[in-house]
Amino acid sequence: MKPDEFATFLAGVFGPLAFLWLVLGFFQQGAELRHSADALWLQGQELQNSVEQQRNLVEVTREQNYFLPGDLEAHIEAFVEHYNHQRYHESLANVTPADAYFGRAPAIIKLRERIKRQTIEHRRLQHRKFAA
User: Fold this and answer.
1) Are 93 and 109 in contact (CB under 8 A)?
2) Which domain holds residue 6?
3) What integer pLDDT is reported at residue 113 of this predicted model?
4) What φ, ψ does residue 81 adopt, rounded to 5°?
């Protein structure tokens, strides 16, 4: 086999493989870009939450008169406690910031989904029972 024929053979064999490699790289980069976009969106949500928390703190301090620094500090501490441990945040899938921070959010969301599925199934059974 002549060298130019051999080169043509190799080009025919590896050309489609190189094209496949290019396509796979394109899809991988797309997935990475989507992941980066999601991470930026989550950072934006966290920033919005922080701004919301600061606004709420300002509103609390404007609404009430504190004559001693300790009173103000106690009220701010109570507000932060409420905000982080009791108030559900829509941007955090309706869990508290503390649940998200300490890694409890996935378990809470999974439990809620299970309860929701059970409730829907129970309602369907009730509907079938009453419809029959």
Assistant:
1) yes
2) 1-63
3) 94
4) -60, -45
The residue with tokens 């959010």 is 105
Q: How many CB atoms lie within 10 A of CB 97?
A: 20
Show the CA angle centred on residue 27, arms to residues 24 and 28, nearest 5°: 85
Domain count, the chain: 2
Same domain, 73 and 59: no
Shared-domain flag, residues 58 and 75: no
Q: Which residues, in sequence order, are bridge partners of residue 89?
A: 95
3-state secondary structure of 95: strand
- Give the type of residue at 72: L
Model confidence over 100-115: pLDDT tens digits? 999 999 999 999 999 9
- Residues 103 and 125 grouped into a single domain: yes
Lookup result for tokens 């620094």: 69
Residue 103 dihedral angles phi and psi, to the nearest 5°: 80, 15
Dist. CA 110–CA 14, nearest whole Å: 47
Residues 6+ apart with CB under 8 A from 100: 89, 92
- Show the low-confidence residues of the chain (pLDDT under 50): none
